[in-house]
Amino acid sequence: MKKFIGLTLIISMLFVLAACGNNSGNSKSISTTSNSSTNDKANVKDKKDNVTLSFIHWRGEDVEVLNRIIEKFEKEYSHIKVDTQVFPSDQYQSTAQAKIADGSVGDVFTVFPGAQFEAIANAGLFTDLSSEKFVENFEQGLIAAGQKDGKQYALPYQLVYNIPIYNVSLFEKYQVDVPKDWDSLLAALEVFKQAGLTPIAFPGADIGPGQLMNSMVMNNAPDEDIFVKLEAGEAKLTDEWWVKTLAQFKELNDKGYLQKDAVGAKQDSSIALFVQEQAAILGTGSFHLASNKAANENLKQGLLAPITVAEADTVFEGIHTTTFMLAVNNKSKHQEEAKLFIDYLSRPDVASEYANGTGQNVTVKDVVYTSDELNIVSEWTSKKTRFQPRFTIKNGEVQKAVTNSIQAVLSGVSAEDAAADAQAIVEQQIGN
Amino acid sequence: MKKHLRLLEFILPGLILYAVLFMYPTISALYYSFTNWDGLSPSYQYVGIQNYEKVSKDIIFNKSLTNNIKFMLFVVIVQTVVSLILALQIYKKSKLNVFYRALYFLPTILSSVSVGFIWTFIYDSNLGALNKVLSMIGLEGLTQSWLGNPSLAIFSIAAVQAWAHIGQMAVLFIAGLQSIPPELKEAAIIDGASTFRVFYHITWPLLAPAAAIVVSYTTIQSFKAFDLVFTMTGGGPNYSTEILSTYVYSSAFLNYSFGKAATASVYFLILIAVITFIQFKLLKTDRVSY
Fold it and tell me: B141 is in which domain, residue-wise?
């Protein structure tokens, strides 16, 4: 018994000593109250204490480029080391909040707009970046997704267009013009079907419904707050705008314009059809332009938003999303260093390196794009687009009910029944 | 008293592990089921039985429960029957049987996430091997949208679950079969009993404890088949493969409603306990002796 008690005491003492060691390390961390990044830089450089920043995100495909950027950052700020952890995006959506909650991980973290941003904001885990100078480096019209209650909590870094990609060569070969309304879209798709091609490669089992719904609904419900109203109980999925959208999805499927068994297709098989030039359109978004090109360097791509109304009734030409939102953890002990890191990423030359290296457009001003794919996207900045409607849905289950109603119509359910089933779930979620 | 303390010392490490890893999370779930905690905020409120009322009326919870029962019935029946048939074929000691046991056991050691990805490719109706093989052998009429058809998807995943664990269950049956004294069967055969009567009156009653373990383990496994469902369909299409574990996950991590997720977990716990209890009673696991 004595040995047991003795051993317990020794282990306890070791824990206490380890904890003291940890505290002493933490006590070196810098705490400055300055809001100016220039002052931050001066303060931090004066003290020259070593700090390890934890940076968490979901872009595994960007790691190589980000590592190069981080290496340069660490050279400039020799006392700061950045420790990056990357998680798959679906895992990140579900676990990031728990990881950053105690401040031990994710001094700098990225966040999705919509439900995840709301949850983290409600939990008070964001540091207010409103008065930081580096906010001015971003296109002011593209950072609203990171704002709440008049405060800039996160800065969207990537600019994505959630618009289907089309094979320009196939359109030219079959002398099909980019459709400007619903009827001409159906006519174009019929041409490809008759040619033995898949008109639209559509991954209905995973990302397809959540992507294509945006451009399908944008002109059926031009009110940009339509899903906000849905969650407020002021609009319903059984209203004409959503039933029409579902009916149009069903029409595309029933006429054989979506790939075979679209509702069971995952993105890999849809992408394969498109890059092998067996499909004329890929129903995802601009984020696949670079990887498609990497898989088939002869591929000539463009963006084509399905217009679901008559040309004269068209309000929006496409959909954009600002995502990969950079934020500083409110529980972090290294907030000033974290801000320096975001400041660094927001420099035009660094953002250009990121954009051209990863093939992703960014929200930072004065960035120079060098690849064809990035220029395809940058052309869209002058067009009339609206923010991705799906990300205006704050409740995850409501979002799922909306996208699942698309899967329902593709499985043979009528548009009216699918809308009614989804509306029943929405009402339960919003407490009506 | 000293003797009791000494005994306590021996069980203490196990007790601590059990308390920390099992008791504490279970009691926590029960506690949070009476709150509206979102999983992030430092504060939350006590909401009484509100979550229990909401969850029991929740459309998605009820769909998940129905799907889970379909999934469980398919897996329990297929896995138990097929593993028993396999065990009866390979329980005798021979080099060939050892090889077969290893072969059947192989899928069990694969990670369920890998199994999920492999079968997603096999089931793919555009590029997958299953439809291609069916077409090649002239059974084109049987080709299906295995994961895209809402009426079929849950059974397609259940078949994978059974495939992955049949070998494991066969091992349990083999252990049970090998413990049956051969003279009992020999005596029955000498008395003129048919193969079926030998199985029905001797093998099966003596195998009942092993069968009870197989059935209850398979049931629990069916309710916990999260990773397979998550990797293969994510609960879709249109909730057709949503099961209780994916419902709990969505509630907690997509909808930030930990109180609701904890409530569903409590229902989940009660359901498994009741089903397992009924199974034990039906299988009459009291040891039979001859």
Answer: 59-284
ipTM for the whole complex: 0.81
Task: Tell me whether residue B180 is in a domain.
Answer: yes
Rounding to the nearest 10 degrees, give the CA dihedral for residues A413, A415, A421, A424: 180
Record: contact A119-B238, CB cut-off 8 A: no
Query: Does residue A1 belong to the interface with chain B, where contact is any CB pair within 8 Å?
Result: yes
Q: Per the domain annotation, does B4 fall within a domain?
A: no
Count up the domains in chain B and report the number: 1
Query: CA B40, CA B255: separation in Å to the nearest integer?
Result: 12
> Which amino acid, B19?
A
How close, in Å, is residue A102 to chain B by CA atoms? 10
| Measured distance CA(A54)–CA(A105) in Å, rounded | 6
Higher pLDDT: A316 or A290? It is A316
**Spatial contact of B246 and B231, defined as CB atoms under 8 Å apart:** no
Name the burial class of residue B191, with classes exposed (0-12), middle (13-18) and buried (19+) by CB atoms within 10 angstroms of its CB: exposed
Q: Is residue A125 within 8 angstroms of chain B, CB to CB?
A: yes
Q: Has residue B102 been placed in a domain? A: yes
**Could you read off the pLDDT of B224-260 as tens digits, one per residue?**
889 999 999 989 899 999 999 999 998 888 788 899 9
CATH code, B117: 1.10.3720.10
pTM of the model: 0.82
Quick one: how far is CA B174 from the chain centroid?
19
CA distance B255 to chain A (A): 5
- Rounded mean pLDDT of A160-170? 96
Give me the mean pLDDT over the B125-147 stretch. 90
Contact B59 A115 (CB under 8 A): no
Residues within 8 A of A (CB atoms), B 150-209 only: 150, 153
A196 touches chain B (CB under 8 A): no
Please, which residues 382-401 of chain A have a Cβ atom closer than 8 Å to chain B?
395-397, 400
Contacts of A98 in chain B (CB under 8 A): 39-40
Q: Is residue B87 in a domain?
A: yes
Residue B233 forms contact with A (CB below 8 Å)? yes
Q: Where are the alpha helices (H) located in A218-288, listed in sequence order?
A: 226-231, 240-254, 267-275
